[in-house]
Task: inverse folding
């Protein structure tokens, strides 16, 4: 990867009051995320105040521990190392989505997945977990990785979430069904809570856990996903604004920030360019600058 945008302007300083946004997909969207990071840092007037890209989440292709989306393929070690360094040099964490719920003891010796962690185990990077077996393994073998409790655990019960927040996790990603509810705002500590702001799935989806299991099976077997087509995940970014769980920018920079929330996950792995760009700009760029930034991105990154 390269530094796509080099200008000399006053850069924002990070601090406790910064709002952290976590963007998909660390592999396929790497050029976009790095370019956007340059813009946010060097032309801050185009973007909301005190925002930063805290992490790029996802998986290098072909990792059987990956969950949430099927990501097949492969990558060479040097390219992996280069991408991790590029992100870390920008103060952006690489966040692995190792949330496959079907991981067992027999899968822990996977050479490729261990390589992913070995190269990122420097105290700067993170891994989202679901499987207790895999979580215990990572805690023991890769203590430099910050662990995050995954939304794929499908926790909607408040007592269960409160117990999760007491555990030794860097962050806990809550179920989007709690978004914009008094129940979510009752949880503490808020600085340990990460909310998904634009979940493409339907609110309270009854097939969600089964879907994650099917994705995990496909990832383990390097196979096509065998699951009934879901009409909800095919919706555009602007269509999902009708979801009760959708969190607007007014909410983020208003009541969420005032309540102490600092961590916001933007959904969008495996989504098309338009959805990804629209969601990134909605949450980071000021409304009056979005079209300008969008045109620059399409020209510089996608050559359109």
Result:
């Amino acid at each position: 990867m390269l530094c796509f945008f080099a200008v000399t302007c006053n850069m924002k300083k990070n601090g406790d009051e910064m709002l952290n946004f976590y963007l998909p997909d660390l592999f396929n969207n790497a050029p976009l995320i790095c370019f956007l990071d340059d813009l946010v840092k060097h032309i801050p007037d185009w973007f909301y105040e005190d925002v930063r890209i805290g992490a790029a989440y996802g998986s290098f292709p072909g990792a059987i521990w990956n969950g949430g989306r099927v990501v097949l393929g492969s990558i060479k070690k040097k390219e992996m190392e280069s991408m991790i360094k590029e992100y870390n040099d920008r103060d952006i964490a690489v966040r692995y989505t190792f949330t496959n719920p079907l991981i067992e003891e027999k899968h822990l010796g996977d050479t490729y997945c261990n390589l992913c962690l070995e190269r990122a185990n420097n105290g700067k990077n993170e891994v989202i977990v679901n499987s207790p077996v895999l979580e215990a393994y990572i805690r023991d073998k890769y203590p430099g990785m910050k662990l995050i409790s995954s939304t794929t655990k499908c926790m909607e019960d408040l007592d269960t979430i409160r117990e999760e927040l007491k555990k030794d996790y860097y962050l806990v990603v809550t179920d989007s069904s709690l978004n914009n509810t008094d129940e979510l705002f009752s949880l503490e500590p808020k600085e340990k809570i990460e909310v998904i702001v634009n979940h493409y799935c339907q609110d309270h989806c009854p097939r969600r856990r089964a879907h994650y299991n099917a994705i995990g099976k496909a990832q383990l077997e390097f196979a096509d996903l065998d699951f009934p087509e879901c009409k909800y995940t095919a919706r555009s970014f602007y269509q999902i604004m009708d979801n009760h769980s959708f969190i607007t920018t007014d909410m983020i920079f208003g009541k969420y920030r005032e309540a102490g929330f600092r961590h916001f996950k933007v959904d969008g792995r495996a989504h098309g360019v338009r959805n990804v760009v629209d969601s990134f700009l909605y949450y980071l760029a000021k409304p009056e600058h979005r079209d300008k930034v969008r045109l620059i991105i399409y020209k510089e990154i996608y050559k359109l």
Notes: Strands lie at 19-24, 51-58, 93-98, 126-129, 146-149, 171-173, 193-196, 263-265.
